[in-house]
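(Structure overview)
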Amino acid sequence: MRVYLAGPDVFLPDPVGRGATLKRMCAARGLVGVFPLDDLVGGDPPALAEMDLPFRIARRNELHIEECAALIANLTPFRGPSADVGTVYELGFMRALGRPVFGWSNSGAKFAARTRAFVGGDGATDPDGMLVEDFGIADNLMIEGGIAASGGAFFAHDVAPGALWQDLAAFERCLAGVAGLLMRR
């Protein structure tokens, strides 16, 4: 069973090494991890070669997702109070295909608290007077709602200072959930 590994992990100093680690952890659970930087099964379609690089990367990632039975998203806040926007797009793309999506995060803080800490404001609104979403969940309601509706689950916990991008305990818990769901199907 192929599982797409979405997340800002591609921006780490050694993304290939990170992908290899995540894929080894998948293999230990009987899953085939597919990292965004992997080659496509069967190679790139000729149409990809004609695309500008950013659009070729985007389409290749969509093709990877289409090859997979489920998606695991690293939703650790990235460059702000919420998850990486590209990762959230990929999660929604898989959700639209009707397949299960799972999420994990190395931040146990709720989305509203992270937003308030990031933007300031009076608590209920930001400095521009816009309401701060506060449903007591880990991220935007569409992210967690999509995960839940797909049959997936979200796993989050706080990690030691300095370990935000190294600790894989939440990924391991998430992986166990994915393996359990896919093996029952």
